[in-house]
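ok here's the first one, seq then struct tokens
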Amino acid sequence: HDLAIRQSDVDAWLRTLTALRLVIAERLGIESDDDHDPDDARFGVYDWLGYRLELIIEATDELL
């Protein structure tokens, strides 16, 4: 499903997803790319959030 984010809500989405990603990184002990274990399913959420953040940033850049 597609998700439409209003331009006025983009900053809130970016802040929220970034905060969630930082909390997960702290809990998993991620301090650098070397700390990432691709075989550990818990890192999937961390990666997914990063991917979503990237998509939002790219979409916003295209609108500007």
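and now the second one, same deal
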Amino acid sequence: MAGMRVTAMLSGAAALMCVATSMLPVAVATAAECPDVEVIFARGRFEPPGVGRIGDAFVGALRGKTPKSVGVYGVNFIADWDIVPGANDMSRHMQYMATNCPNTRQVPGGYSLGAAVVDVVVGTNGAQFGFNSPLPASVAPHVAAVVLFGNGTRSIFGPVSAANSPLYGPKTIDQCNVDDPICNGIDPSTLADNWNSHLQDAYIDSGLVDQAAQFTADRL
């Protein structure tokens, strides 16, 4: 009998807890807080997932130049040779942010292979070669700046570079280090002699990353 009474008491307590819980206000799920600024960065070839060393340096420098909150999105792609998956991912994220965080100032950027990703997204105006997420013109007002480092596209396919885009060109800073054979179009026979000028340390140590951060901060 004692056992039955204990069971009855526990059941009654459980019932009371259910009633009490039902009387509490229900929490409403809300979207994650939108940052003031979102850096959407595509890393260089063979760098591990994330924004890469130059992306990290750029974000750190930018945070030191603005009181605004700065969110970071590392473009999701393998970073081997194929830039199309990265371009599709970057474009989709930019469109998502424009819709869900309309007051957030976007800063797409990339280094080396990642810079080519950016060029596909903002330098072209339609789907092609597997790129199936063209950026609507309505996203442009949400973009504060476009930052490129070691961008080989400008020396090979200049017209599709972000710097030549009617919508994004005035917002773009296209950083090319002295003697960088990738973005300067230097004679391939001198590639080995000048390769260090294309590497991350060369851009960070030269001040070009910090300069791009200031360019961006001035436009937020």
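notes on #2: The helical segments are 2-23, 52-63, 84-100, 113-123, 153-156, 191-194, 200-206, 208-217. Confidence is low (pLDDT under 50) at residues 1-31.
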